[in-house]
């Protein structure tokens, strides 16, 4: 198991001028940024190569890809592709491009609902049928991950309405392992991870780390670091209890006033606050880098695709061209080589 856990974060040890990215035992941490897709051909966009180069220039060593299937109602018994689902061919091509640039890849398939409905509310009327459909969905991406040499796969994302069905998830994980030999995680929401009971079937604990850190807007990293302390202690204890490292499968902040009060929200404010976003990036990396039990972070997210963003870039989650990107470059160091 130690070898597997090392494989999860191998190749991410390059350091720049900032803090080291390894724990005291020498295990590396994952330095990643998510490149989501919102449409069938997003990953084939002419912007793709520019985005990948921009991600690598931050010092990132991983990208996360998020092909998404949909179900119409929370009670549906299955999920399906739509025009908003990244095509398999486009996922293959962008994985190949990422590898050519020396980036490692995590595929993190999502199941979503129409509009602004939260996937955590999915509660199928026929759970047996839903899990049968979900296993087909996941093994499809397990095959794609194996074929593309993808270095890590997530078996689910923020499915709190069904993540308590432990036996069903154990079956999901077992079937995925028949198709894919790499490390597996599950991306639990920050208020969900303690209710997940199948962590020991996986290789690393995944948490989407959207904890509110302040009651009022702040650009003070020290204040945010203090807010992280009890959370960090809780996560360290949980990692020891489970015998697994903790990966922040997502973490991010909009560049809006009040972003740290509700990191999970795209619409905290209509006032740009890039300094608050940067302070939040700095506080998270200061708080967790070098902890032996911490496996790293995949930031949400890089740029929206041209003409697809619903949130203006100056207010969005992207750190690109903002002080938060400078924090990444400082903490992670510039791209050096391919590993």
UniProtKB/TrEMBL annotation:
Annotated protein name in UniProt: Glycosyl hydrolase
Organism for this UniProt entry: Streptomyces pseudovenezuelae
InterPro entries assigned: GH, GH113
Top-level division of the source organism's lineage: Bacteria
CDD domains reported in the protein's UniProt record: GH113_mannanase-like
Transmembrane segments: none
């Amino acid at each position: 198991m130690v070898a597997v856990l090392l494989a999860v974060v191998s190749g991410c040890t390059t350091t720049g001028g900032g803090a080291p990215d390894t724990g005291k035992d020498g295990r590396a941490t994952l330095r990643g940024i998510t490149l989501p897709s919102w449409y069938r051909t997003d990953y084939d966009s002419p912007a793709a190569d520019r985005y990948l180069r921009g991600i690598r220039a931050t010092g990132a060593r991983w990208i996360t890809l998020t092909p998404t299937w949909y179900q119409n109602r929370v009670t549906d018994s299955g999920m399906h592709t739509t025009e908003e689902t990244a095509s398999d061919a486009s996922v293959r091509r962008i994985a190949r491009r990422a590898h050519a640039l020396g980036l490692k890849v995590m595929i993190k398939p999502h199941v979503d609902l129409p509009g602004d409905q939260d996937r955590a509310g999915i509660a199928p009327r026929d759970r047996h049928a839903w899990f049968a459909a979900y296993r087909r969905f996941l093994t499809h991406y397990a095959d794609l991950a194996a074929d593309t040499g993808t270095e890590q796969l997530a078996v689910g994302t923020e499915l709190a309405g069904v993540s308590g069905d432990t036996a069903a998830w154990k079956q999901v994980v077992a079937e995925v392992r028949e198709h894919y030999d790499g490390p597996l995680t599950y991306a639990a929401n920050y208020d969900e991870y303690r209710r997940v009971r199948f962590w020991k079937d996986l290789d690393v604990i995944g948490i989407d780390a959207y904890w509110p850190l302040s009651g009022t807007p702040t650009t003070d990293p020290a204040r945010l670091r203090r807010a992280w302390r009890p959370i960090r202690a809780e996560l360290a204890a949980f990692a020891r209890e489970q015998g697994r490292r903790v990966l922040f499968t997502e973490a991010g902040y909009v560049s809006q006033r009040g972003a740290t009060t509700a990191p999970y929200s795209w619409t905290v404010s209509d006032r740009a606050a890039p300094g608050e976003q940067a302070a939040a990036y700095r506080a998270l990396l200061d708080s967790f880098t070098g902890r032996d039990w911490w496996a790293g972070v995949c930031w949400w997210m890089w740029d929206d695709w041209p003409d697809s963003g619903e949130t203006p870039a100056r207010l969005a989650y992207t750190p690109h061209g903002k002080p938060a990107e400078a924090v990444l470059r400082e903490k992670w160091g510039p791209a050096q080589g391919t590993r």
